[in-house]
Design goal:
Number of domains: 2
Mean pLDDT: 94
Strand order of the largest sheet: 2-1-3-4-5
Shape: globular
Length: 287
Amino acid sequence: MDIEAPSTSPLILAFCDDLFLVPRLEDAARGLGYRMHFIERPEGIGAEGVPIGRSVPLTEPLEGPDAVLVRHLAETRPALLLFDLTSQAVPWERWIQVLKTSAATRRLPIVAFGPHVESAILDRARAAGADLVLTRGALQATLAEVLRDWVVVPNQEAIAKSCQDGRSQLADEGLNHLQAGDFFEAHEALEKAWMAEPGPSGYLYRSLLQVAVVYLHLERGNYRGAVKLLLRLHQWLDPLPARCRGVDVESLKANLQSLQAALDRLGPDRLGGLDQGLIRAIPLVGE
């Protein structure tokens, strides 16, 4: 069975355009075996424009530039976000707050840094939800330590090892319901299966649980609920190897990408036109 874990080195995403600091960040990241990518302006990820208020507070935005930001980060899953509080181009306060109040991105660690002479800016970053706020001088003095301490990646070894195991009885019960189109019952059983294995070994069960909820939302005509769950799925499904506990994860990801693309084309007002064939059974190894 293919249980190879993803081998790509962790990605650090820095919202920074400081010509002096950029090479130092790159060198420190490279020295620790990380990749570093810089976003200097919202246009870098297509997130420019006037923000649109969230219809439901404290959840993922689905319209406007903030929605583009959340989706970009949910799909790329950086191991750390760095925000330069002196940036005049990036709306760092709003973006930190949005990321930390969206279930799809709130687990991403955020380190913010700014000038020591402007404590009010540092306080605003803390209030917005940054996990660590420090002065630029403190960051530069402890750069390697900060990156090493705050980069968060899934335990790929534990996940890969768990993928060699068989499924639990509860997981099989939930999977059988899911295959039969009994999405609510699938959700109930898979939630119990995941709660019995809440660590890395439960990534597959949590993924299947959220697939069941996506399908349940679509069955009930809830476009927004389905799209939000597809965003949240990335943090549990993406770290899995191509095959896990008899599930063809690679094919499952492809199926969900096709579903996401169809929902993007239709939008909330034309959900009735969704091809029901895209609500597919979970692909299993050997089937």
